[in-house]
Amino acid sequence: MSLVEKWAVGSFVQFAVVDREEDVYRVTEQLYHLESNRHELRAETSSPFYRATVPFAPHLFGSGKTTFCLSYLELVQRFRETSLSSFASDGSRKEFLDKLREAVLLYVDLRLLEPINPIEEKRNLKWAVLYLLFKSTCLKSGQGQPDPDECFKVFKLRTDVLIKKIREVLSMRTDQFLLVAFDEVGVLDESDEEFHFKRTPDGRVRPYNDFFRILWELCLEDNVFFIVVGKSEGLSIKNYVASVSKVLLHFISLSPLNSSSIVEFLEKSYLKVQTQSRVCDILCNRSFSVNELAEALLEYTGGVPGLLTRAVNMLLNYVQTRGQSFKSKEDCLSCMKEDGFRTVCSQPFVTRISTLDESRRSVLDMLLMMALYRIPFKADDELNSESYLFDVVTEMGFYRYPIDDNTFQVLFPKVFIRNLNNALSFSLLEKILLGSLNMEPVDCFFSSKCRVFEGIVATRLVLILSSKVRNEFRELLGRLSAIWKEMKLPINGPSPLHYMMSVSRGEARSESNKKRKTYGCNEWNEIIHKALCFDRVYIPKEVNSYSPDIMFKLQSPDDSNVLMVGVACKGRWKSEGIGWSDIIEEAKKFLYPVFNEFLSQALECYHCMLIIFGTKLALNVTSELGNQSRCYTSRMRIGGNSFEIPPNCELVILCERDVEMLIDREILNGLERAFSTSDNPPFGDLGFNLLRRARDSFMSWQ
Fold first, then answer.
1. pLDDT recorded at residue 433
2. C-beta of residue 252 within 8 angstroms of C-beta of residue 294
3. Residue 686 burial (10 A CB sphere; 0-12, 13-18, 19+)
4. Which positions of the chain have pLDDT values less than 50?
5. Which of 190, 204, 297, 631 has the highest Cβ tally under 10 A?
6. Backbone φ, ψ for residue 248 (5° rounding)
């Protein structure tokens, strides 16, 4: 069976539209704002309301833009008694909502926009837009394509005559709402040669200014509303047109779907031919629930609607070809892990990323870091003086996941990664970041300051442990610890970050529990032998794991000794610093259980080391260390003799000077400033310069 036959995309399903309540509410509010302030537009007063309000979705292919436009009025009907009930809080809003339920949608595909040629109006954008509006109206009503010359004789450039004629063709009352949805507005980026555009004082052409000025004129007509969507640099456009074209663009978030929404999507979608056959019933059986299918799809598609529908169509083709549904989540995931599945599923989506110019390629690794470490950014954060991060994310083929109205995270769907590996040549750092994103479980988020700190340290450790260049940090540990000096370094690799089940304080869960996500604190035998492989750096899946923040396992060249290493990252900048009680707490939750559950019964060749990696040590700790790093070995006592190092164990405490071998002072200072007010600071608080500095420090170890 060929790749195309096995992974045919097809179009088997009538997909349900789900999880758009908030978007529908916001768009309805914006349309109401235009209606209630339309008289201000005509007056052109000094009031801020003289600018027309237009919902705007500048998103990538697959984000659900077109589907949202086409289904908006249907969704208004669906949510009228639920999420929209609070909107109709007074008489005028209720009246508006009642009229919106009777609105007529006119869909206009701007890919059909072209110069229309009555001689006196050649290459005139306004006439081309007005004609396309009327042409779309005629096609919607079942009439043929209208003659442009005849249309121009009737309309000229008068918007009032055009709207009146549209109402006649669509058999609309004069008080009935007309909602026009302009799709693919991004084509204006490529229309410089087709139309005469106005030039700015510095000689630049801004086609969107001209386009939205036309929409502003159309907004002067009663009971006419607009939604505009398309692939474009949305924030730059929004800022330009607000001042020049007197239009306020409000972003439609179109969030990727979460797990519960994907469940609803699977339960409400059905085959086009067999309308009683739900997608979830075909793909799942009794041992494989729709919730598990949703988790698998979320992990690989990121919940991006276009990727999701493409993946489901491909899975349906696969299941129907082999004649049986998936038996388990692992069965389904193994299918989606195949190179062929990923290549075919992501092929239409990765065009931009695989054809980036040099200036954009230079920030690819930093966007990957933001996606991996879950570093949020604000809508107006600048990449440089000429571009906003909001627009660069779209331009480079990534997705945005909205946290709130003004805050976003970079989303990079896992299904993209294999296809990109075949299309681009990556730096070593980019390979590690892509591999780490590929390994990352869907429920593992770098969602706090600790996780960002740990993520940077873990990535740095991967590079340090695998570097073939002379390495001060490795040499330092070799001087402090005899057993470390015996280990085989550099490790094979470098490999990406790996993720292991977290360690729980409680007892181990039953082996029969298939949904188990944690180890018990008495299962270190299994963790060391089965969970951790040599030469890989691991992070627990959950932030509150009862284990070190980072773990890896080393061996000597002749395999005579094995060293289990845990790293406790203590990000603290307060005046009191990290005291002995903090250090002892970390030692008790790692060294004690590892010794009791494993080392005490293991061969002498097994050893355990805990490294305390702290940003600021307490004065009494610094004093005892003598302002230098120190290794405490078996039977030694710390913290006023309150803790004894178990046999075959070592505790390494790094002084602040040696911590800077892993993270230099400038980065530490930047993290301190960023996290001084918030546990999850926005990108602007971290700053692109800080992220660039971290990137440069990573690359120094390559």
1. 92
2. no
3. buried
4. 508, 510-514
5. 297
6. -100, 115
